[in-house]
Amino acid sequence: MKHSIPETPLNSAALFLCCLAYLLLPCLAAWLLFGQALPFFLKGSQFLVFYFVHMLVGYSTLQVLKQRSLPVQMLCNWLLALTWLLAVTRITQGAIHHKPVGFLVSLLLLHSLLLVIIGSSRRTT
Questions:
Q1: Would you say 21 and 54 are in contact if contact means Cβ atoms under 8 Å apart?
Q2: What is the C-alpha separation between 97 and 70, in angstroms, rounded?
Q3: How confident is the model at residue 121 (pLDDT cuts 50, 70, 90)?
Q4: Which end of the chain, N or C, is less packed with Cβ atoms under 10 Å?
């Protein structure tokens, strides 16, 4: 027999800190690795490293929240919105400069699908 674990609400300060980490930690990694913190000035392969770190931070944050029985639906929605904002602006930048963006588009779709799946899953015991 499955029982739902009661979830405590995620307050706005925790949500803000999670989103801040989701945005700033990949920038810090890019600055340490490439000497450039802003993702819009990174070359294509450098941006893909930035994006993988971006995804890793997001999934790690969601995993920690799930282990603490905190709701992840709202955070998944925020992370999905931030991911789309970042990726669509970078795809637009690449398209304007006639650069290949297919790999980034496929990563964006995969990342979005995973966030939707994680956000919609319910934790049961």
A1: no
A2: 42
A3: low
A4: N
